[in-house]
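Our consortium's second objective concerns turning raw sequence data into structural hypotheses that experimental partners can test. To show how far this objective has progressed, the report includes one record in full. It was chosen at random from the queue rather than selected for favorable results. The single chain below, 90 residues long, was entered without modification.
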Amino acid sequence: MSSADYAEWIAYQQLEPTLGERLDILFARLMWLVASMMRDKNSPKLQVSEFVPDWDPKSHTKKPNYAAMFATMQMGAAVHNAVIAANAKR
């Protein structure tokens, strides 16, 4: 991307922001709300920060933590399954 293209993109973003600012925070709060409603009362309280993507480029140079990724996927699957079960009872 040339500097002229980049400058044009920046100017466009100032006039027409795509999907608002910090949409990642909005969705993190939504995911936190759903996960908090579905969590077991004996489990530790969740933090919104657990659902915010890590945009720090320095953190992407580290070796991926596959165990943490798998745990996150398991938590997402548990929330999904709880929602499906709750809807089936209706």
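The partners drew two points from this record. DSSP finds three helices and no strands in the chain. Helices lie at 3-15, 23-38, 66-88. Both points have been shared with the crystallography group to help prioritize constructs.
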